[in-house]
Inverse folding.
């Protein structure tokens, strides 16, 4: 058994949870906030048997989309010779950051 921790965009939570429910894969959702863009994220804890791990990754790829977004850069302390962008910069947001941990013991009480 594995514990999968997926950090996803809050925009993708409904699609992911619906897909997990259809596959009868349980999940716990915790709202979180990203440090870089300060946007709403969701951290999803998913317990899954080893043989269903590939199916879970397929679901994550189908439901957690990467998007591009324009972001105004914050003004850092400028070192000599550093380039400072003058306008909005396009950055990739969304997708999923996934951690897979082995589970030594699981009990439902």
């Amino acid at each position: 058994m594995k514990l999968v921790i997926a950090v996803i965009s809050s925009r993708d939570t409904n699609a992911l949870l619906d897909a997990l429910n259809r596959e009868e894969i349980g999940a716990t959702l915790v709202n979180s906030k990203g440090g870089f863009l300060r946007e709403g994220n969701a951290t999803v804890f998913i317990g899954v048997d080893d043989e269903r791990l590939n199916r879970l990754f397929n679901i994550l790829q189908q439901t957690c989309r990467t998007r591009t977004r324009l972001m105004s850069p914050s003004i850092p302390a400028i070192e000599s010779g550093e380039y400072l962008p003058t306008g909005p910069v396009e950055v990739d947001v969304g997708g999923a950051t996934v951690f897979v941990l082995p589970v030594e013991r699981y009990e439902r009480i």
